[in-house]
Amino acid sequence: MQVTTMQLSRAQRQVQLVLRSFVAIAMLALLGCGDGRSFPKVHEVKGTVLVNGQPAHDVQVYLNRIGGEKLSVPATPQGVTNEKGEFLITSYNADDGAPDGEYVITVEWKERSGLTKSDFEGVDKLGGAYAKVEKTKAMPEFTVRIDKKPVEIPPLKLTQSAAARQRAEAAKKSPMDMRGPLK
User: Fold this and answer.
1) Which of 29, 44, 65, 125 can pair with 97 through a Cys bridge, CB separation 3.0 to 4.6 Å?
2) Where are the domains of the chain?
3) pLDDT digit string (tens) for 70-114?
4) Measured distance CA(177)–CA(180) in Å, rounded
5) Domain 42-173 belongs to what topology?
6) DSSP assignment of 28-88, as one string?
7) Which is nearest to 106 in space by CA: 72, 76, 147?
8) Computed from CA positions of residues 25, 27, 33, 35, in that sequence, does the dihedral angle turn out positive or negative?
9) Strand, coil or helix: what is 170?
10) Is 99 exposed, middle or buried (0-12, 13-18, 19+ CB in 10 A)?
């Protein structure tokens, strides 16, 4: 009987040691996450992109901050349109929105690439017409203010020029250059 008590006592000690080790590792992991700053409050931001009057899929929409309080954790809010041309903005976590502030919208429409098709590369199908803050900041529909509430951006009605369409089609047809940077 005494041997059994000692074995149980030893087993209990082993369980306690394992639990204490687990708790210590979990605490260290939590302390190691981030730099102690908390993310700024964000608000839902959504909208739609139409190109030549039609919903455009896989358009990249960026909110470029031009005003507001300094953020404790900087972000470039952005989103990608779905098949209906709709997008939700992401700053820190998927579809979380954008922090308060003033923004200029920029837009690019590039082909998906990479093994998982999560990258966007190649020619901008819009010819770069909406890709630079300098170009879009003068357009009232490309400025947005986020101020403590959700925002729905009015539809962005973009035009794809014939020249931009031709360049994008030609880029699709041209064979991939596999020679690398040293050609």
Assistant:
1) 44
2) 1-33, 42-173
3) 999 999 999 999 999 999 999 999 999 999 999 999 999 998 877
4) 7
5) Immunoglobulin-like (2.60.40)
6) HHHHHSS-SPPPPPEE-EEEEEEETTEE-TT-EEEEEEEESSPPSS----EEE--TTSEEE
7) 76
8) negative
9) helix
10) buried
Long-range contacts (CB closer than 8 Å, 24 or more residues apart) made by 66-69: 66/101, 66/102, 66/103, 66/104, 66/133, 66/137, 67/101, 67/102, 68/99, 68/100, 68/101, 68/102, 69/100, 69/101
| CA angle, 100 then 101 then 104, to 5° | 130
Q: Distance between CA 51 and CA 150 in Å, rounded?
A: 25
DSSP 114: S
Q: pLDDT by residue (tens digit) across 108-136?
A: 999 887 777 778 888 999 999 999 999 99
In angstroms, the CA 91 to CA 96 distance is 6
Residues 6+ apart with CB under 8 A from 65: 71, 76, 101, 102, 103
What's the CA angle centered on 76, arms 120 and 149, to 5 degrees? 120
Taking only the tens place, the pLDDT of each residue in 13-26 is: 666 666 666 666 65
Please, which residues bridge with residue 103 across strands?
65, 144
Tokens of 117: 């098709």
